[in-house]
Amino acid sequence: MKSRKKVAIYIVVSLILFSSCQNGIKNVEQLVREWEGKEIQFPPNSVFTVQGKDTIEYMGNSSSYKIVTYVDSIGCTSCKLQLLSWEEFIHRVDSVSYGKVSFLFYFHPKDKSELRLIFRRDNFEYPVCLDENDCFNKLNHFPSDMMFQTFLLDRDNKVLAIGNPVHNFKVKELYLKIIQGEISGQTKEAEAIMTEVAIDKTSISLGRFNWQKEQKATFTLKNTGNKPLAVQDVNTSCGCTSVAYSKEPVQPGRELNLEVTYKAEHPEHFNKTITVYCNTESSPLILKIMGDAE
Fold it and tell me: Where in the sequence is the signal peptide annotated (predicted)?
């Protein structure tokens, strides 16, 4: 069995890779030390529902691992939830874990009706706990940054890793490696086949438009290296933004189009981020769309 020390090294490396300006390396290391091995406390008699109905008892107590995420009521709810990305990640985990991982979602809602609409819109059929009194957070005092409000736990509810896997490719791979028992003293990233990429533009303005009309934009990536270009993952900062692209490797000299679709949930000025992970030194690539949905 791999030592906790080696797991902690992976956690530190992964978190440093996606830490933002306000979360410097020292703060990340301190956060890891604070949460590593800490036991997460769950509110007694937590009530889980599917799409706001069908109350069930669900705590995943027999699972070897748990992935638990907490979402607070601050800011854009849809941006934080990323339910479609969670569904993809759950399917991937299930395919490699043979049911030994449970997922626990605790949402502290500012508007239960908005949450139910989002659940129905995204057809999200996994159990969630609508924690109206914020009991889960009060028991554990989670970090304020949503990137650090998701945890991989062992059977005893102790933290093995911290970070949001649907918002960061590195964290996603970390979780999968721990679940599959692949953590070792060395990473495989240095051995990865790398290439180079050029982007036609990094930001696109969609201007002013009727908020009820779907908008589209296209970013073009060109493989300027001598090895195939592989897009490993694409994350968006909001559930209102989706990206379609070919999953096939891009041969040297060829191009790949990222078709971005934006559908406003209400009138707003927006500035959305698309993060592209690929086998280049410049990865992740940060792209933006902006405009005014009126």
Answer: 1-25
1-5, long-range: CB < 8 A, 24+ apart? 2/181, 2/183, 2/184, 4/36, 4/37
Q: What's the pLDDT at 23? A: 44
Q: Are 82 and 75 in contact (CB under 8 A)?
A: no
Superfamily of domain 197-293: Immunoglobulins (2.60.40.10)
Q: Regarding the domain delimited by 4-189, which CATH topology (the fold level of the hierarchy) does it fall under?
A: Glutaredoxin (3.40.30)
pLDDT for position 9: 44
Composition of the chain by helix, strand, coil, percent to 5: 25, 30, 40
List C-alpha distances in Å: 183 to 10, 82, 131, 163, 178.
Answer: 8, 27, 34, 17, 6
Q: Boundaries of CATH 3.40.30.10 in the chain? A: 4-189
Helix extents (H) in 58-98: 77-81, 83-97
Torsion of CA 197, 203, 204, 207, to 10 degrees: 180
Q: Do residues 237 and 196 touch, judged by C-beta distance below 8 A?
A: no
Q: Is 226 exposed, middle or buried (0-12, 13-18, 19+ CB in 10 A)?
A: exposed
Tokens of 60: 């995943």
pTM, whole model, 2 decimals?
A: 0.69
Convert 81-96 to b/e letters by CB count within 10 Å (16 or more is b).
Answer: bbbbbbbebeeebeee
As a whole number of angstroms, the distance between CA 99 and CA 96 comes to: 8
pLDDT tens digits, residue range 150-179?
999 998 999 998 888 888 888 888 899 888
Q: What is the DSSP letter of 164?
A: -
Give residue 250's pLDDT: 92
Across-strand partners of 122?
none
Distance from C-alpha of 23 to C-alpha of 260, rounded to nearest angstrom: 29
CATH 2.60.40.10 in the chain is located at 197-293
